[in-house]
Amino acid sequence: MGCRSWIFPFILAATGELLTEDKLCDLPNIENGRIAPYYYSFRDYYFPMKKGKKLSYSCLAGFTTESGSQDARINCTTRGWAPAPKCYKKCARPPLDHGGFSDKKLSYKIRESLQYRCDSGYQTPEGSRNETIQCLQDGWSALAQCTDADATSMALDTCSAPDLLHGHYHTAQRVFKLNEKLQYECDDGYLTAGGHTREEVQCRRPDWSLIPKCTKLGCSLRSPIERGGVHPRKGSYDEGDVVQFFCLEGYSLKGSDLIQCYYFGWYPEPPVCEERRNKCPPPPQPPNSKELSNVRTYHHGDILHLMCKPPFQIRGSDVIRCENGKWTSPPKCTVLSPVSDVGSVASTDVRHNLEPDRNCSSPPEVKNGLITSTVDRFLTSYKTDSSVRYRCNSFHLMKGPNAVHCVQGHWTEPPICLEPCLIDEENAGNHNIEMKWRLEEELLHFLHGDVIEFVCKPGYALPPSIRESQLLVQCTNGELRYPRCISKDPNDNCGSPPSIENGVLVGLLTTDYAHGSSVEYSCHEYHFLQGSRTVSCSKGQWTTPPICIEPCTLSQEEMIKNNLDLRWSFDQRPYFVHGEFVEFMCKPYYFKPRSSSPSDFRIQCQNGQLLYPHCNEIPG
Fold it and tell me: Could you say which of 396, 418, 440 is where a domain stops?
């Protein structure tokens, strides 16, 4: 038996020497992790490994891989092990005064986010009530903190670079002063907030973009509020809010009619990298089309109306749609002119073939609109190339160019003034819905294209076949299609979900859950979750919750009592998760009982219990 014990490793080592060609990967050093024990015992045989070989490793309790799992696999490549084996320490729930967290978990894996909310009268370091921090390799990305709002109202003019998933920054700097810029780039398959692979953002204060002016020929400028107004009209506006200006009769708008509130923070949007297929790049701008004044982030299903510069007109549909990360084909902007009495048209590049200039009669009337040009309203004849401008009545949104042009006796297509929507509270009440956000002392007018968010009245819910998105209703030329909520069946609701030992419920909890609702459980650190992590409310009853099985605590007293040492020195840890194996060996001058087998010293943690083997003292 003594010969065999050394011949086997010798044969393995000798065989390994014959296969050294193309061996690239040595035994990995995994901090807070381990590989199978036999790799350590016969290291010279297994390592270095050949290209293409795979190796599994496990992280110790309290540590996880980047994906959050306990185990992972790496591949031997020409550059070594890929991906590099790493075990990250979990982040413990941070302390927080004057606020609360969105869930009750005690630990978080690498890259996992945690949201907290400050109590009334307190705010985060960024100046808001809510904040999200992320578990990183060196701990939390930021300090969870709620401070007195009044004391911090004059905060430092700085912006913090948020943690960027699926991308990276071009600098290691994390805090930026006012007006400083930050460049970032997204990984393959992801796009920035503006729809690019890389983008630059700037640290800004709360302010309005350039405010337009209402002017009148021959008159000096006065305060805009004296000759125009805005919609919607509120006492204060949040970041990103857009306001539309309109002028009183006899005044015309100079500049864009839309202004936006940009805010103290990253402008135009905080750095983010999102999946390419869900978002479109900036919309196309066909030649001779009006420049888009409110370029934002567009996702799958979003639509956009394009308009042409005068005297050009849309050829084709004026609507383009974001579909699977791409825009549908945009229309063309051309000037159309009649060629014959039958109404056929040709572009202006063949005007030399047309008949001599002909005058136009009175300009077309626009419903809900007025002519703003300084022309004689009784004039019945207009020369070729004459133009007349329009404006829409208050709360009406103009579609198309704001002017018409006389071309060979015919006016170009006039604009359309799309009607606003007025909330019919009686009709909404009949559908058992109400507005989610109601502004005090505000007329319930909404412009064409505005989206109004409704909620079901207490005691009512959407039918099971209707999605929640149906509660978002868009104003379409004065029409609103109200969704209908139906009465809840109180017998189908569930009360508070069951509590479990050694575990907690994730997220904010209530005492009433509708049929089909679900909640998620999480076990305390080192505890093993057995069963489904999610339970659901089904006709008044909760499905079976999971069980959190206790870990095994390694007892030094029991090891001394049974004359034991741990076989692997790297495994010095206090806890072993349910199902894990612990390997022991006898202390020096002690031996295993003759009746024992190797498996007797490889003990599995079962429901928090370890059955320690025993070693006998060598007789003196």
Answer: 418
**CA nearest 243: which of 292, 269, 282, 209?**
209
pLDDT in tens, 363-386: 898 999 988 876 665 677 888 888
Residue count of the chain: 620
In CATH, what number is assigned to the domain containing residue 367?
2.10.70.10
Please choose, from the candidates 554, 558, 559, the residue with its C-alpha nearest in 3D space to the C-alpha of residue 587. 559
CB 148 within 8 A of CB 154: no
How many domains does the structure of the chain reveal?
5
Q: Give yes or no: residues 339 and 393 share one domain.
A: yes
Angle at 440 between CA 434 and CA 442, to 5 degrees: 90
3-state class of 343 per DSSP?
Answer: coil
pLDDT in tens, 181-228: 888 988 877 788 777 888 888 887 655 544 455 544 333 333 334 456
Provide the pLDDT for residue 230: 64
Q: Does the residue 101 lie in any domain? A: no
Cβ proximity of 403 and 308 under 8 Å: no
- pTM of the model as a whole: 0.30
Q: Do residues 571 and 495 share a domain?
A: no
Helix (H, G, I), strand (E, B) or coil at 478: coil
**DSSP label at 433?**
E
Q: What is the DSSP string of 550-572?
A: PPEEP-HHHHHHTTEEES-GGG-
Q: Within a domain: residue 325?
A: no
Q: Which two tokens stand for residue 180?
A: 């400083």
What backbone phi and psi angles, to 5 degrees, belong to 314? -70, 130
Choosing from 500, 533, 549, the residue where a domain stops is: 549
Q: Residue 1: CB partners within 8 Å, gap ≥ 6?
A: none
Taking only the tens place, the pLDDT of each residue in 570-605 is 666 778 888 888 888 999 889 888 888 878 888 888
Beta carbons within 8 Å of 82's beta carbon, 6+ residues apart = 74, 75
Dist. CA 49–CA 26, nearest whole Å: 6
Q: Where are the beta strands (DSSP E) in 232-357?
A: 242-247, 252-254, 258-262, 265-267, 274-275, 279-280, 298-299, 303-305, 313-315, 319-323, 326-327, 332-334, 336-338, 345-347
pLDDT the model gives residue 218: 34
Looking at residue 143, what is its pLDDT?
Answer: 83
| pLDDT number for residue 220 | 33
Which structure tokens are listed for 205? 């204060």
| φ/ψ (deg, to 5) at 342 | -85, 0
| Distances from the Cα of 442 to the Cα of 157, 439, 457, angstroms | 34, 6, 21
Inter-residue contact 550 to 503 (CB < 8 Å)? no
252 CA to centre of own chain: 41
Whether residues 351 and 407 fall in one domain: yes
Residue 23 falls within a domain, yes or no? yes
- d(Cα 512, Cα 497) in Å, to the nearest integer? 9
99: helix, coil or strand? Answer: strand
CA 489 to chain centre: 34
Q: Residues 445, 498: one domain?
A: no
Domain that holds residue 427: 421-487
Three-state SS for 245?
Answer: strand
Number of neighbours of residue 86 by Cβ within 10 angstroms: 19
pLDDT digit string, tens, across residues 415-457:
999 998 888 888 888 889 988 765 444 456 778 887 888 888 8
Is 525 within a domain? yes
CA gap 506, 133 in Å, rounded: 17
